Amino acid sequence: MTRFYLLKDLWGFMKVRKKWWLLPILIMLFLVGVLIVFGQSSSISPFIYALF
Q1: With contact defined as beta carbons under 8 Å apart, do 36 and 44 qualify?
Q2: Tens-place pLDDT, residues 23-52
Q3: Cα angle 8, 31, 22; round to 5
Q4: How far is 34 from 20, CA to CA, in rounded Å?
Q5: 3 phi and psi angles, rounded to 5 deg
Q6: What is the rounded CA–CA span in Å between residue 48 and residue 43?
Q7: Alpha helices in the chain (DSSP H)
């Protein structure tokens, strides 16, 4: 099994079934996850909290 099996499976699903509207949702979920990870223990966390 490859390391990015889930991503390949999602890409195959969107490609075959023409569900391209899922792509922006997945990108936003990824960006929010990255924001949470970097916001927990960094010097930029006060600036991130100011956004909300």
Answers
A1: no
A2: 899 899 989 888 887 777 767 767 767 776
A3: 50
A4: 22
A5: -75, -35
A6: 10
A7: 5-17, 22-40, 45-51
Q: Looking at residue 47, what is its pLDDT?
A: 73
* pLDDT range class, residue 7, cuts 50, 70, 90: confident
Selection from 22, 49, 26, 50 nearest residue 36 by Cα: 49
Give 9-27 pLDDT, tens digit per residue.
Answer: 988 998 899 989 988 998 9
- C-alpha angle with apex 29: 19 to 6, nearest 5 degrees? 60
Q: How many CB atoms lie within 10 A of CB 40?
A: 9
